[in-house]
């Protein structure tokens, strides 16, 4: 429509007025009527910037930067020193650009390097083979002040072998806690003890104790909570318990609550990961007998009313193996289990 209006107005009013009235751009109209000739062949190289250094000047700057006097100095130091002597070669950024083109701009300080953290792979096929422990905070009546709950768990049975509540966390208490956990387990030490990388877990007293007892020490990778799933799951069970207090009035209150909770957890809580047995039953070796009794009860119920069942009922099985990060060589099956 604009082109039609322009074509009608141009013969009467001229190009300028026709463009103004029709809204057509004069530059666009001129470009359409007088297109630039097509350039054949390669595009010519752009003209150098007037401030570009010549090849001789570039060579002189590099020679100065490579000289024994300035070879270990930063370009800013070289530039300032020469300027104080009445010499100006180029800007600081140009010095950096020339050195970068020669591959001579890099971090010369020694950089810290860290070995790759090994993915922990632990397998337990029975109780007292792999323990895992961690510390969680319990809120007190004073804002910002916490009690520390230390908990040691057998990953196969989910049995809380030992727990302690203290007003602080340190390496000495951690060492004493681990020793007490082994005594509470009848003196039977596990083959592996796993923990995260807290200061207490990686402390020298803890490492020395485990080495003395010939227990292999294992740690989670940094910021990988799945490397310690049993402790994390147990703390969630603790803190989501309906009776868990918002705050503890005293350390005696915290210890009394934990005593009641862990007694119930070990001896009454039926854990889905261990065939709906209690952790104490699996840890102390009575779970297989209990499972046999369950099977007899289910068989009697099936014999009395077979129509109520789609198939012969069987009680849940105990896991053959549990692990922290299933090893590649391990093949999972219906009887094995990965996390709490």
TrEMBL record:
Which Pfam family would be a valid example here? rve
**Region ranges (Disordered):** 26-52, 307-340
Fetch the InterPro entries from UniProt. Integrase_cat-core (IPR001584), RNaseH-like_sf (IPR012337), RNaseH_sf (IPR036397), Transpos_IS3 (IPR048020), Transposase_IS3/IS150/IS904 (IPR050900)
SUPFAM superfamilies in the record:
Ribonuclease H-like
Identify the residues that the record assigns to the Integrase catalytic domain, covering every copy. Answer: 123-287
Q: What's the superkingdom here? A: Bacteria
Instruction: Name the PANTHER family on file.
Output: TRANSPOSASE INSF FOR INSERTION SEQUENCE IS3B-RELATED, TRANSPOSASE INSO FOR INSERTION SEQUENCE ELEMENT IS911B-RELATED
Report the protein name in the record.
Answer: IS3 family transposase
Q: Which organism is it from?
A: Nonomuraea rosea
């Amino acid at each position: 429509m604009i082109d039609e209006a322009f074509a009608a107005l141009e013969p009467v009013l001229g190009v300028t007025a026709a463009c103004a009235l029709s809204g057509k751009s004069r530059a666009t109209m001129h470009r359409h009527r007088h297109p630039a000739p097509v350039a054949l062949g390669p595009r010519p190289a752009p003209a150098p910037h007037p401030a570009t250094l010549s090849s001789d000047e570039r060579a002189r700057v590099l020679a100065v930067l490579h000289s024994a006097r300035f070879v270990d100095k930063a370009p800013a130091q070289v530039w300032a020193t020469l300027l104080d002597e009445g010499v100006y070669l180029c800007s600081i950024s140009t010095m950096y650009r020339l050195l970068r083109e020669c591959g001579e701009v890099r971090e010369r300080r020694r950089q810290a390097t860290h070995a790759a953290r090994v993915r922990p792979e632990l397998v337990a096929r029975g109780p007292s083979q792999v323990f895992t422990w961690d510390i969680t905070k319990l809120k007190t009546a004073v804002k910002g002040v916490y009690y520390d709950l230390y908990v040691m768990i057998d990953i196969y049975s989910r049995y809380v072998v030992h727990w302690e509540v203290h007003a602080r966390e340190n390496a000495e208490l951690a060492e004493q806690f681990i020793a007490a956990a082994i005594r509470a387990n009848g003196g039977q030490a596990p083959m592996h003890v796993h923990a995260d990388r807290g200061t207490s877990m990686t402390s020298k007293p803890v490492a020395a104790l485990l080495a003395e007892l010939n227990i292999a020490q294992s740690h989670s990778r940094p910021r990988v909570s799945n490397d310690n799933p049993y402790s994390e799951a147990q703390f969630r069970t603790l803190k989501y318990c309906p009776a868990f207090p918002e705050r503890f009035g005293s350390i005696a209150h915290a210890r009394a609550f934990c005593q009641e909770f862990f007694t119930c957890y070990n001896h009454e809580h039926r854990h889905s990961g261990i065939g709906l047995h209690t952790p104490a039953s699996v840890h102390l070796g009575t779970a297989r007998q209990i499972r046999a009794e369950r099977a007899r009860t289910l068989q009697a119920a099936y014999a009395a009313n077979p129509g109520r069942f789609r198939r012969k009922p069987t009680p849940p099985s105990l896991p053959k193996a549990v692990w922290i990060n299933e090893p590649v060589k391990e093949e999972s099956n219906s009887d094995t289990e990965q996390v709490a």
